[in-house]
Amino acid sequence: MTATLPTHRGTDTAVRLTGVRKTFGQGTRAVTALDGIDLRVAPGEFVCLLGASGCGKTTVLNLIAGLDQPSAGTIELSTSRPAVMFQEAALMPWLTAARNVELPLRLAGVKKAERETRAAELLDLVRLSGAGDKRPHELSGGMRQRVALARALASALNREGDGAALLLMDEPFSALDAITRDFLQSELLRVWQATGTAVVFVTHDVREAVRLGQRVVLLSSKPGRVVQEWAVADLDAPEGALVTEEINGRLREVISSHAA
Ligand SMILES: Nc1ncnc2c1ncn2[C@@H]1O[C@H](COP(=O)(O)OP(=O)(O)OP(=O)(O)O)[C@@H](O)[C@H]1O
């Protein structure tokens, strides 16, 4: 069975993957990137997918986003199309920050006055209210990622009534310097709490995963499978440090067993 289906199961699930397999290519050149992935994300939940390079994290996000189809298994979504944010902000260089945020609303047919109001609210939410008329080249890398976050939220939150909002983030801060990354991580947590959107966040950085996620899901490599998952409470509490240490240990084991 192979499908990506909208689900109207009610409010208990933002996205559910059941027995998902993904194979690229055919015959002797076939690569099974994912095998038997089961994952459920609740509405409003923040889940981090953690794994070494090449374990299939981006493939999982692409399948959830509908950018690719699973070779087997099912993906059920409570929204018709989740919003995606990548490592690069990918803003339209000829549009101002505000117009970039408005873009998904324009494509969805939202009227001009309303989309201007919503873009202004979202730029305010990501603390860029004074930068709406700037073009991407006038902004820093961190500011561009904040515009990209506002644009993704415009897209995700525009589907209210369509199901739970879902934001898919593929290593969105990994190209930024450590100070900006740290700042944007706390900004993302603030924005997530303010909007209540479910987030699936891909990273290879254990500390980032533990800091952001309510749940951290560790994937193995070749094929990508769920190895273990952890519920994360407070990173600054003693248990937070222990969880970080434990996840680091498991990740090292997974990488060395793959290398052996
Ligand atoms: N279009 C494709 N064709 C063939 N193989 C692919 C394709 N996309 C991904 N793969 C393979 O699938 C596996 C998983 O790739 P994926 O990009 O999902 O990993 P990742 O965990 O996101 O890696 P990274 O952290 O380096 O971005 C890799 O072995 C990769 O080479």
TrEMBL record:
Pfam families per the UniProt record, alphabetical: ABC_tran
GO molecular function annotation: ATP binding; ATP hydrolysis activity
SUPFAM superfamilies: P-loop containing nucleoside triphosphate hydrolases
PROSITE patterns per the UniProt record, alphabetical: ABC_TRANSPORTER_1, ABC_TRANSPORTER_2
Domain called ABC transporter: residue spans: 15-246
Keywords from the UniProt entry: ATP-binding, Nucleotide-binding, Transport
UniProt cross-references to InterPro entries, sorted A to Z: AAA+_ATPase (IPR003593), ABC_transporter-like_ATP-bd (IPR003439), ABC_transporter-like_CS (IPR017871), ABC_transporter_ATP-bind (IPR050166), P-loop_NTPase (IPR027417)
Domain of life: Bacteria
CDD domains: ABC_NrtD_SsuB_transporters
Sections of the chain in a coiled coil: none
PANTHER family in alphabetical order: ALIPHATIC SULFONATES IMPORT ATP-BINDING PROTEIN SSUB, TAURINE IMPORT ATP-BINDING PROTEIN-RELATED
Name of the protein described by the UniProt record: Various polyols ABC transporter, ATP-binding component
